[in-house]
Each structure stands twice: as structure tokens, then as C-alpha cells.
Amino acid sequence: MHDPSLFFSSRTLHWLKLSLIPGISCRTLMKLQTVYPQPEDILILLASGEWRNLPLQKSAKHWLAEHSQDIDAALKPKLEQTLEWVQQGGFVLDWQSPDYPPLLKEIYDAPVIIYGLGQRQSLMASCSMAMVGSRKATRYGVEQAHSFAYQLVHQGWQVVSGMALGIDGAGHQGALQAVSEGAAVSTVAVVATGLDLTYPSSHKQLKQRIMETGCVISEYPLGTQAKANYFPRRNRIISGLSQGVLVIEATEKSGSLVSARCALEQNRDVFALPGLITNPQAEGCHSLIKQGAKLVTSVEDILEEYATGHQAQLKRKTEHRREVDVSVQPIISRSQTLVPSELVVDSAPLSLVEPTVQPESQHSVPDDPILSAIGSQGASADEIIVRTGMSWAELSQKLLMLELTGVIESKQGGYALKSH
After folding, report:
1. Letter string b/e over residues 292-314, b meaning 16 or more CB atoms within 10 A of that residue's CB
2. Residue 212: is its pLDDT beyond 50?
3. Does residue 200 have a cis bond before it (omega within 30 degrees)?
4. How far is CA 256 from the centre of its chain?
5. 80, containing H or E segment
């Protein structure tokens, strides 16, 4: 195998290895990283017998039972494939890379590894708008997606979408037309397959055109085929890369509404284009508008949301996010890192042992604004932000610690107090 250090930092290589282990989610890796600050520390843990005490999926435990004694050998074929792909022009970013998208890093389940093709600087665009909608779009929907994307890119807003048929493809095409006319920003496609594949196959040429001025990215390893459950996971990255999400044509059960829900949970803005009340492809947009999404009929409706005052607010959020990234220290510094056996109490890693003191006495609801915001009914991340006034960068750190200490648990759509 080629020397990986010629293509990756040691940190990126370690995160890449961790991401390739079946059944270990990025969320689990983020939790482990709060106790084991360096990715190589997590690899040491997994190579020892202590992985048996971790709350891992069965598939991960089965894989580790067979391969933990020599993880490098087990992952060698995938690593060789990735190195060859990078030699041919691809790139790999880990979530601690300086050129990892700062907006995406804010979300609670950011991918630890991003595979990319094209212009990686596109991922650092200061203004990005996601555009999603039906694969079976009407002619009206296609025309509007193309027009909105074209105008947004001419106004300096990068368009992020999923390279699917229908609205996604029309949005990318509109963005690329603006680029051909001299626009300074382009478009980013987030896909749900390995980047050595193209789905749908009819978009091979579109993929190539996007790579010339923009970027195509995926969290999935090379060779990963499209599966239905990968697309909702992909949608959180589309919204995570953007300040807002524009929905153009969506049925009541459309996957595009997953993107809208992700946007709300990530404290992003949601915009929706109305359509004919007799058009089932517009029902999802109308439902979003009823729930509080901003109705838009022109690009100006979006731009006015990001006028000078709002842009200043975005800048302050970005500066605060950078301050948090610098100021938040890991629980255990590199010089203090303990070997896994020293972190075991009653056969479970220290970070995952239930508190000996009842959570109520450690975090009483009246004294903790986060727990008060969650309440007995539970709450989404967006609701907690509204109720506490905290930024997502600040809140995500505290939610993670409350979850690790067993005070709260994450559930579909938000968080709930954990019953004991």
C-alpha cells in the first residue's frame, strides 16, 4: 500500500479508519471523542477488549469481535482503494480539518469524514442556500428551481442540493448557468453513495460540470451503493451546509420535508414556494408555510431575510462559533490521556457509567435552563435554542455532556429527560 502520510495527516487517517468500521456512527465517535481526545486513542480502545463495554450496535461488536486484534489489516483493502482514489483527484476531510465546513461542524451529528470531488474551497462559502424538492417535479417546479438557483448564485449565494432528478438537478443547472455567465460562486452536491459511483446514472455529465467550479461530496465510503435510508441521512448534510433551506414542490410525504425538519433542528431558516392548491406536489410546501416557513415568491423574499442587520448577526454567530471551537478544551488533554483499562469502573468506561448521584440532584430542572426547556414533554433542539437563548455551538456541548452523564437522551426529533 502507498504511504498514507503522503496524502493524509495522521489525524485524518485515524478518523478515516474509525469511519470505515461497520456499525459505528459519527454520533458515537463524537461521544467517544469527548473522553478520548485523539482519534488514535479511540483506535487503541477498540483494539483492546474494552469495546465490549461500549454501547455499540451489534454489527460493530460482531466486526470488532473478529477484527479488533488487527484493525489495520481488516481495513487495508478499503484504505488502499481510498488512497488510489485520492491519487486520481479526490480528497478526504476529517471533522477536525481546518477546511472542514464551519456551518456543517455546528450540527450535532456532523460526519467525521467527508469525501469530495472538485473544488474543496466551495465548502467554505460564506453564504449558502439549500434547495430541495420533488424528484417528480412539474414543469413549473423545474422552471422555478432553475430560476431561483440562477438568481441566488448571481447574488453571491452558493446553492446546495442533492443531485437527484427533478428539483435538485434543475437547481444545480441554474447555478451552473450563472457560473458560466461569470458568477463568483457555484454549487455543491451532497450525494448518498460512494463518490466512485454516480446516482442517478443520468447525471454523470452534471456531476462533472459541478466538479469544475463547485464540489460533490459524500460521507459514504467508496463503493457504497444507493439505499433508501441513506437519503434522509444525506439531507442533514444538505441543510447543515446552508444558512437556510428552500423547498420547491414537495408532497406531504416527500423526503424534502426531512431536509426542512433537519433545518429546523439545526436552527436554519426554512423557505417554501407555494403552488396550485390542486397540485399534490405543492402540498408539502403549503404544510410548511402553515407551520411557519417563510412563503417566498421571489429571490428578494429570501435576500431580505439576510439584509445588513441579519448578516451582522450571522457574522457574530460565526465569530462566536470560532471562539467556542478554540476555547472549549477536551475533558482529558493529550498529556493526561489514560489507557483504556484505567478508565474502567465496574466493567464500564468511566464516561458511560451511570452517575452514582441521582441526576436530579446533579441537574435539578429549576436550576438548569436546558432541562427546564426540555421539560417533561421533551423538545427539539430548535425549541431548546428558542427557550434558552443559547447558540447552537454552546448548546450542543452542554447537550452532549447531559447525554453522556445519563441525564437526557436523544430521540427522533429532539431530546427527553431520561427516566431512572
Report:
1. ebbebeebeebbeebeeeeeeee
2. yes
3. yes
4. 16
5. helix 71-87
- Residue 86's nearest CA partner among 193, 192, 9, 24 is 9
Confidence tier at 380 by pLDDT (50, 70, 90): confident
CATH architecture under which domain 354-417 falls = Orthogonal Bundle (1.10)
CB of 263 closer than 8 Å to CB of 245: yes
Residue 343, classified by CB atoms within 10 Å of its CB into exposed (0-12), middle (13-18) or buried (19+), is buried
**d(Cα 348, Cα 334) in Å, to the nearest integer?**
22
d(CA 10, CA 85): 18
Residues 6+ apart with CB under 8 A from 188: 122, 123, 125, 128, 158, 159, 160, 161, 210, 214, 215, 216, 217, 241
Mean pLDDT of the chain: 82
For residue 1, pLDDT beyond 90: no
Q: Are 113 and 95 in contact (CB under 8 A)?
A: yes
Question: Can you give the pLDDT at residue 397?
Answer: 67
Residue-level pLDDT at 308: 57
Q: Give the Cα-Cα-Cα angle 193, 199, 204 (nearest 5 degrees).
A: 120
CA dist., res. 127 & res. 392, Å (int): 18
In this model, does residue 401 exceed pLDDT 80?
A: no
Decide: 239 and 233 in contact? Cβ < 8 Å: no
- 329 SS3 class: coil
> Considering the entire predicted model, what is its pTM?
0.74
Q: How far apart are CA 283 and CA 254, in angstroms?
A: 10
Residue 78: is its pLDDT beyond 60? Answer: yes
Cα diameter, the chain: 65
Placement of cell 498514507 in the chain: 4
The domain spans of the chain are: 4-88, 113-306, 354-417
275: left (phi over 0), alpha (psi -120 to 50) or beta: beta
CATH architecture group of domain 113-306: 3-Layer(aba) Sandwich (3.40)
